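> call design_seq(struct)
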């Protein structure tokens, strides 16, 4: 299956042997078109575009699917892999012991993790802009006052 910006390119992709091609990733129906073309999800995806197209394709990749990227990943020889704690559940007792020791000897320092800001409703946009300035670490909680 391929993705292209124009019908003529999709025709070429099919001539190369693709069973399907989603045309015009600028179309308002692109996401629905991609879902229709990938009913069983995507097992392997070669990305040469990035951005919006990659974001949409990522919603269609099956568990343990493979992605290749031509840009920074190739030149840097990077590998990416999803992470979920359930894959490591058998090692929790060992890791928990290491984390407790690291916390006790100061190698890990826990911060408060949240900032509570009291402000009137009129000031909420200004408070929320702190999320984009690096002014807070952790969660930003706003408490409305009169």
């Amino acid at each position: 299956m391929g993705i292209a910006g124009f019908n003529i390119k999709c025709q070429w992709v099919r001539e190369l042997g693709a069973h399907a091609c989603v045309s015009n990733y600028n179309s308002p129906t692109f996401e629905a078109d991609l879902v229709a073309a990938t009913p069983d999800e995507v097992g392997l995806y070669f990305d040469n575009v990035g951005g919006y197209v990659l974001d949409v394709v990522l919603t269609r990749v099956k568990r343990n699917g493979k992605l290749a990227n031509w840009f920074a990943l190739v030149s840097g020889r990077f590998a990416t892999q999803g992470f979920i704690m359930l894959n490591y559940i058998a090692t929790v007792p060992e890791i928990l012991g290491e984390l407790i020791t690291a916390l006790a000897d100061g190698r890990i320092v826990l911060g408060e993790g949240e900032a509570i800001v009291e402000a009137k409703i009129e000031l909420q946009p200004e408070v929320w802009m702190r999320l984009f300035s690096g002014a807070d670490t952790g969660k930003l909680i706003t408490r409305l006052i009169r």
